[in-house]
Amino acid sequence: MNYKKIFIKNVYSKYWFKKSKEYIHNNINNTVSIKFLDEVCKTNKLKDLLEVCIGTGAPIANEMQKKGYHVSGIDYSPELIEECKRVNKNINAKVGDAEKLEYGDQTFDLVYCFNSTWCLSDILSTISEMYRVTKDNGIIIFDILNDDNPKIKKIFKDTKFENENIIGMIYKTIKNLVKLILNKGYPQWEFIVLWNFTNYSYIKNFTNKINKQKIAAYYLDENTCSLIKVTKNFEYHERLFFKLKKIS
Questions:
Q1: What is the share, in percent, of the chain residues with pLDDT greater than 70?
Q2: Within its chain, how far is the Cα of 104 from the centroid?
Q3: Contacts of residue 174, Cβ cutoff 8 Å, sequence gap at least 6
């Protein structure tokens, strides 16, 4: 088991458990993601869904279940899965690894993963597994933090500096002490590069190898609270959403 997975399971999941309630109610990405999923499901008449990295189930899986969809979910954290089962007993949630999904081939109509791919150790393995458990003509949906975007590129550069460079590690330690003293923010003492950022070309080149239909990319338009299809100038967008119809 790699150290990053251990950290997410034993440390980051506890932070997320506390942070999730605030995040759920103050994030337009969740509202738009639910709307987009619902539209895709209705258009394609899809019912059986799997959320990869489901966490506590809130808000996306919970809302999709309330809309009448059959929702299953996996997460690496037993604590988050326990809370998911407690809050919404109609969701079939279990502990699992996103890179090795414990489901048979072609099990679900739609498989999705939001707000999580940048925490994964191997996003391509996860996409492969999502693709495998999706039925023919089913849909795979996920989002990424876009490494072509200057702001995201800087965040990733700073993260590596604070966790892999000795001067950066000293700086991070001081910053954590300040957070602790002021009781503000989340002090992460472990020196680990948690976030993995990727880009459109990386995702497109991979999915082109496994699927006949090209992947579609979208960005979030906050003015209309909707996802807009994008075909160029990908560097303008910090986050990209992808939709892939499985045609083997």
A1: 95
A2: 22
A3: none
* Residue 65: Cβ-neighbour burial (10 angstroms; 0-12, 13-18, 19+): buried
Helices 13-25 and 78-87: angle between axes, nearest 10 degrees: 40
Tell me what the mean pLDDT of segment 10-29 comes to: 70
Domain regions of the chain by residue span: 3-145+198-216+237-245
* 217-243 residue pLDDT tens: 999 998 898 999 999 999 999 999 999
Architecture of the domain delimited by 3-145+198-216+237-245: 3-Layer(aba) Sandwich (3.40)
pLDDT tens, residue by residue, 51-91: 999 999 989 999 999 999 999 999 999 989 999 999 999 99
Q: Where do the H-state alpha helices sit in the chain?
A: 3-7, 13-25, 28-44, 60-66, 78-87, 123-132, 150-164, 166-182, 200-210
Block residue for tokens 């003015």: 223
Where b means 16+ CB within 10 Å and e means fewer, 32-46 reads: bbbebbeebbeeeeb
Q: State the CB neighbour count (10 A cutoff) for residue 190.
A: 12
Edge-to-edge order in the sheet of strand 226-229: 92-95, 70-75, 48-52, 108-113, 134-145, 239-245, 216-221, 226-229
Identity (one letter) of the amino acid at 196?
N
88: how many CB neighbours lie within 10 A of its CB? 19
CA nearest to 112, candidates 77, 72, 146, 58: 72
C-alpha separations of 89 from 52, 65, 147, 151 in Å: 17, 10, 38, 40
Residue 61 structure tokens: 């899986």
